[in-house]
Write a structure and sequence with these properties.
Layout (H helix, E strand, L loop, with lengths): L1 H25 L8 E7 L18 H8 L2 E7 L5 H10 L34 H7 L3 E7 L23 E5 L21 H19 L4 H24 L12 H8 L2 E3 L2 E4 L7 H16 L6 E6 L20 H23 L6 E7 L32 H4 E7 L8 E3 L3 E2 L3 H8 L5 H4 L13 H6 L6 E7 L2 E9 L2 E6 L1 E3 L19 E3 L5 E4 L15 H20 L10 H4 L13
Parallel strand pairs: 1-7, 1-8, 2-10, 2-11, 3-4, 3-7
Antiparallel strand pairs: 2-9, 4-5, 5-6, 8-9, 12-13, 13-14, 14-17, 15-16
Helix pairs in contact: 5-6, 8-9
Length: 587
């Protein structure tokens, strides 16, 4: 009897499971939300790509992305330099709102991994928003938004504190020092400071001998003197407290402490090996795509290239291929990386279910020179100025391409002003997710970006808007986009070298060495004069009406949006702190 009952229960369970499975199969299939791949170039000028008119550098993969998607020709960075621009990209907010910009006499970007400066933990990134919607998230490549490591380099989670579940890349940025071979021990005897150190040591020894102190006293005293002089030597040689740029360190320190490669919170390469770096980063992204191509949940890949920031380096098989020298080689190597990532999407059948967004963090650097004095910076088309210049169009007008095969139009060029600030609200709308404050109702942050999804899908222009252009904390210009009209009002101007649009031959322009236009700012109609060659005369009604409107906007903005102090203002938080430094494990 018991066996019969068990058989009956087995049959009943079988039929119950069958009904459940059939019921699930009869439910309408819910398609997986689209994956998101964001490809960020570093210091790439808008004139460096074939699809934007370049004829000396081959960029077939990025050009194909433009042919298969939408090319934005009036795409704007929220800052003309790395850290604040990338912060704005991920948070859709001006970085001045949370102090991740410089002030006069401070750095303008994060200058050390081992420091306390960084993207605040309460700022919400696109990765955080997509994680709430069950996206698998990864950051690959350059981060440069702070790691906030703990004592002895513990807890260096960086991007993993901001919604990314994994990280593989460089927590800092590339600098020329990464390729240097300077030794740790430097003692140039032709330098007065080092002469003083030797003199003090000798005077101390002779004084103790002259006083006929006991041998034990001499030993203790000389040890203390030696330690004090070694400390002075170290601070003077490897820190720059005695200079105006007090936040800097020596080339050796930069190479060994800031030039590292990390996987999640572990250092896997120290110092950084430049050759093959682009390929290693791309390979990791390709693996990520392969590993998650069949997952139930979609993925978000943020791949930030190390190129085309100085120093210029390429794999041997990519060197010498470009007509534009070493800089062109770098652009072409980056383009090959874009092609490999796109090929991985195609290989796994993800083209029609992946939104791809390609951009540069800001314009090219006009002052970049190699050790031979040759120019190795980007080309910003006909736009004036470049990297580091807050309101100069060449520093903030950047390439931007959206592709979503089968969902967004292909081969379209849009001249409507758009911004890197727009990424988060746009991606949320394209993926079918609720707007930011509906998805994250407990987040009080006000976004400065707007969704341009309708513009991308059907050409519907977003509402009228005004965009601020900062240089550090200072507002240098404001742009008005209204009913097909585009005006830009410059409140200050740079002191450019005659016949150029750069302030110096080898260093970036300062945000503070500028001419203040006072009550007569320069006004340009960018619709008719995109390269800002002909300011609107100040005695016209058009000038009075537009500048009056924009002056009022700026005044009201400053009244309702007080900025916090710059994070870079605090010396203790900004300088390289060895006790916070992550190191590669020896075992």
């Amino acid at each position: 009897m018991a066996e019969v009952q068990m058989w009956v229960w087995a049959i009943a369970l079988h039929w119950a499971l069958a009904v459940m499975v059939l019921g699930e199969e009869e439910q309408p299939h819910q398609p997986r939300r689209p994956n998101v791949v964001v490809l960020v170039a570093d210091d790439l000028g808008i004139g460096d790509l074939g699809c934007y008119g370049n004829t000396t550098i081959n960029t077939p993969n990025i050009d194909r992305l433009a042919r298969e998607g939408i090319k934005l020709t009036h795409h704007l960075a929220a800052a003309p330099i790395c850290t604040p621009s990338r912060a704005a990209l991920l948070t859709a907010r001006y970085p001045a709102r949370y102090g991740l910009v410089g002030e006069e006499g401070t750095a303008s970007v994060i200058v050390h991994i081992a420091s306390k400066v960084g993207l605040p933990l309460d700022e919400v990134t696109l990765a955080t928003a997509l994680s709430v919607a069950n996206y698998t998230t990864a950051a690959v490549g350059k981060w440069h938004l702070g790691h906030r490591c703990g004592f002895l380099g513990q807890g260096c989670h960086g991007p993993q504190q901001h919604g990314f579940q994994s990280f593989y890349g460089i927590p800092f940025t590339l600098v020329e020092d990464v390729s240097s071979s300077d030794p740790f021990f430097i003692f140039p005897m032709d330098d007065p400071f080092y002469q003083v150190l030797v003199s003090l040591w000798l005077v101390s020894a002779l004084t103790l001998w002259w006083l006929k102190c006991r041998r034990s006293v001499i030993s203790v005293c000389m040890m203390l003197v030696t330690l004090a002089l070694i400390s002075s030597w170290f601070l003077h040689t490897h820190y720059r407290f005695h200079t105006q740029k007090w936040w800097q360190v020596s080339r050796w320190m930069n190479r060994h402490l800031n030039g590292i490669l990390m996987h999640d919170d572990k250092v896997v390469e120290q110092p950084l090996v430049l050759e093959g770096l682009s390929q290693r980063l791309v390979d990791f992204s390709i693996k990520f795509i392969a590993n998650h191509s069949q997952d139930q949940h979609p993925f978000f890949l943020y791949h930030s290239f190390a190129h085309v920031h100085t120093p210029m380096f390429t794999a041997p098989d990519m060197a010498g291929r470009s007509k534009h020298g070493r800089y062109g080689d770098n652009v072409e190597e980056m383009d090959a990386g874009v092609g490999n990532i796109l090929a991985a999407l195609t290989e796994h059948g993800l083209d029609e279910n992946t939104i791809v967004y390609f951009l540069s963090d800001h314009g090219g650097e006009l002052e970049a020179l190699d050790e031979e004095g040759l120019h190795v910076g980007g080309y910003n088309g006909g736009f004036k100025g470049g990297k580091g210049m807050g309101a100069a169009e060449g520093g903030i007008r950047v390439p931007g391409i959206y592709r979503w095969s089968g969902h967004l139009p292909a081969g379209i060029t849009l001249d409507t002003p758009t911004s890197l600030l727009d990424m988060m609200p746009t991606i949320l709308q394209l993926t079918g997710l609720p707007p930011f404050h509906d998805l994250l109702p407990h987040c009080p942050q006000k976004l400065d970006g707007v969704s341009i999804a309708d513009l991308l899908i059907s050409g519907v222009h977003p509402p009228s808007r005004s965009l601020l252009h900062h240089c550090d904390q200072a507002i240098h210009a404001v742009r008005l986009v209204q009913e097909g009209l585009i005006y830009k009002m410059h409140m200050v101007g740079y002191k450019w070298l005659p016949g150029s649009t750069q302030c110096h031959r080898t260093t970036l322009c300062s945000c503070y060495d500028v001419d203040d236009y006072g009550h007569l700012p320069l006004l340009f109609n960018l619709k008719e004069d995109p390269y800002e060659d002909h300011p609107i005369p100040s005695n016209t009604s058009q000038y009075a009406q537009v500048t009056g409107m924009l002056k009022q906007f700026v005044a009201e903005w400053k009244a309702r949006t007080p900025y916090p102090p710059s994070q870079f203002k605090d010396v203790a938080n900004t300088i390289l702190s060895p006790w916070l430094q992550p190191f590669k494990s020896l075992w």
